[in-house]
Amino acid sequence: MKKNTKNWKLKVIDNIVWVLLLIGVIVFIILKPNYFNPIANPSLYLNIPMQASVMGVMTIGLAGTILLGDIDLSCVGIMAVSAATGILIFKNGIVPIPIAMIIILIMGALLGFVNGVLIAKLKAVALIETLAMNTLLAGVVLAITRGRTITINEKGYTILGQGKIGGFLPFLVIIFLLVYIIMYFVWNRTALGRSLFAVGGNARCAKVSGINVDRIRIAAFTISGLMAGLAGLMLSSKMGSINSVFGSSYSMDIIAAAVIGGTSLAGGVGKVSGVLGGVLLLNFIQVGLQVFGMDSYYVEAATGLIILLAVLIDSFRVRLSNKE
């Protein structure tokens, strides 16, 4: 009986993000039916994935490093430097727009690769190394922009972030969904995905079983950098500009979304569907609070509470799994 109760609790906790999302939708519909009713206002529920797209792409990359029991705090810095590099190379007439977009992705992956090498080969602590890298990259962006906004109005670039298929389905949402489909396949159907869970669960046992732990770490941080670069491309295309604080609002949100989505900070536990739920939940709550007229400062405080809730849920999950 106790075992069945424990299994039931674990199932609920593992899918808590979708339970919370459903509760949130119901509560908001009751409080403001004219706005949150999906039948009366379907555009709201089409707009949520649009707003979540950039953060969602970054979050799934970050989640891969959390699976290892590490963390990547340089995502925002990588996205900003990657986007700034591509835009400046294009604006200076060095390469055309398509090549500039590819350079943004390559730059993100390269910076992620550097993180991975420093952490895997030089045994740097991921928390400190990526925090230092983020600070360094923030300084680079500030030097590049000199505190000014760099605009890019060419349709060939902005269409990615502002264009829609059929007039209603944004390209950003399509990219967002494709990334999650691909990452679901990677996590659940490839040797890399299985190795991520194995290394996160017990790195020493994974090494003994023949897994190249260093290579897996480098791969995870490279993917995180690639996703950050893609997010930078998406956001700069959507905004049509980049500035010295580009993407800084995502720094804590992506951690909150990954953890509340079930990716354990202890490593070895996580689901792509959970990360998706965490991203949608966080964006839905933030939009809902703004609709109710809550000041942006309080919305930030609410995000902090969600992060705290996520950490507590993760702690409870670990304790329950360990039969404490």
Automatic annotation (TrEMBL):
Localization per record: Cell membrane
Annotated keywords: Cell inner membrane, Cell membrane, Membrane, Sugar transport, Transmembrane, Transmembrane helix, Transport
A molecular function GO annotation: transmembrane transporter activity
InterPro entries reported in the protein's UniProt record: ABC_transp_permease (IPR001851)
Top-level taxonomic group: Bacteria
Leader sequence residues: none
Any one GO CC term of the record: plasma membrane
CDD domains: TM_PBP1_transp_AraH_like (cd06579)
TM regions (residue ranges): 12-31, 51-81, 93-118, 124-144, 165-187, 216-235, 255-285, 297-316
Topology versus the membrane: Multi-pass membrane protein
Job of this protein: Part of the binding-protein-dependent transport system for D-xylose. Probably responsible for the translocation of the substrate across the membrane.
Protein name: Xylose transport system permease protein XylH
Organism: Clostridium scindens (strain JCM 10418 / VPI 12708)
